[in-house]
Amino acid sequence: MLGNLIRAALPDRAKAAWLLSQVDVAHFLEGRIRVICQALKHDDGVYSKVMEGLGDISAISSFKVNRDTGSILICYSPERIERSSVLDYLVRGARERYARGRA
User: Fold this and answer.
1) Model-level pTM greater than 0.85?
2) Cα atoms found within 13 Å of the Cα of residue 101, Cβ hemisphere only
3) Contact residues for 23 (Cβ-Cβ < 8 A; gap 6+)
4) Cα 10 to Cα 51: distance, rounded to the nearest angstrom
5) Nearest to 69, CA basis, from 32, 23, 102, 101
6) Residue-level pLDDT at 103
7) Is the model more confident about 12 or about 39?
8) Which listed CATH number (3.55.50, 3.30.1360, 3.40.30, 3.10.20) goes with 2-102?
9) Count of C-beta atoms within a 10 Å radius of residue 8
10) How far is CA 100 from the centre of its chain?
């Protein structure tokens, strides 16, 4: 519970950094990100938070969660992302991590 309160108080950049620290970026194309979250496979709380959190972001056009693999596919509209929002920082961070992993 305290962890949830602390994360709620974090600025969007820190929230995005924390979220990225919890996943592996498996694939990135502008408008589409696939991440793997191992905790998703066995933690109902993580699943609920993912479903709720992604559903609240208007720039996300669709997302698909596969609990068997821990995969989350996020499709978003780049032109609808609000600057300095959590999604903006997530996309930037995912792009950087994916590029580093391919280099």
Assistant:
1) no
2) 11
3) 35, 36, 37, 72
4) 20
5) 23
6) 63
7) 39
8) 3.30.1360
9) 8
10) 18
Joined together, the tokens standing for residue 99 give 């590029």
**Alpha-carbon gap, residue 61 to 53, rounded angstroms:** 13
DSSP string, the chain: -HHHHHHHHS-HHHHHHHHHHTSEEEEEETTEEEEE-GGGGT-HHHHHHHHHHHHT-TTEEEEEEETTTTEEEEEE-GGGPPTTSHHHHHHHHHHHHHHHHH-
| 22: Cα within 13 Å, side-chain hemisphere | 15
Query: Strand pairing partners for 64?
Result: 73
Q: How many residues are listed for the chain in this entry?
A: 103
The pLDDT of 8-37, averaged and rounded, is 87
Give 47's contacts (C-beta < 8 A, 6+ positions apart): 40, 65, 67
Give residue limits of the domains in the chain: 2-102
Mean pLDDT of the chain: 87
